[in-house]
Amino acid sequence: MSEKDEPDRPLFLVVTIKPREDRLAEAEAQLQYMRQQTLTEPGCVFMHLVQPQDDPDSWVMLEMFRSRAAWDEHMRQPYNTEGNAILEDLLREPSELRLFDER
C-alpha cells in the first residue's frame, strides 16, 4: 500500500472562495453555518475561514480531516451538499479545491 492510500493519513485542504461583491454577507453566513456543522464531525480536526492579506476579494477555507474517508463522509452530509448548491449563486466562480498530504 502506498503512503497515499493509507486510510488513517490526515488530509489537508485549502479551498479558495471568491464571493460575489453584492452577496458577501449571504456567502459568509452560509460558509459559517457549514463550518459550524462540520466542526461537530468526528473526522474534522479543524476548519477556518480566513482572508488573505494580499487578496481582499477572496476567502480561503483551511481544513484538516483525520483521513480521506472522513472527508468523503463530510462531503456526503446534507448540510454540505445543500450548502454547496446554495453557494453557487453567491460566488463569482466555482471554488478552487486543493488537497494536501502531510510530509
TrEMBL record:
InterPro entries: ABM_dom (IPR007138), AI-2_Isomerase_LsrG (IPR050744), Dimeric_a/b-barrel (IPR011008). SUPFAM superfamilies: Dimeric alpha+beta barrel. Keywords: Monooxygenase, Oxidoreductase. One of its GO terms (molecular function) is monooxygenase activity. It holds the Pfam family ABM. Residues 11-100 form the ABM domain. The keyword Oxidoreductase applies. The keyword Cytoplasm does not apply. PANTHER family: ABM DOMAIN-CONTAINING PROTEIN (PTHR33336:SF3), QUINOL MONOOXYGENASE YGIN-RELATED (PTHR33336). This is Antibiotic biosynthesis monooxygenase. The lineage of its organism: Bacteria, Bacillati, Actinomycetota, Actinomycetes, Micrococcales.
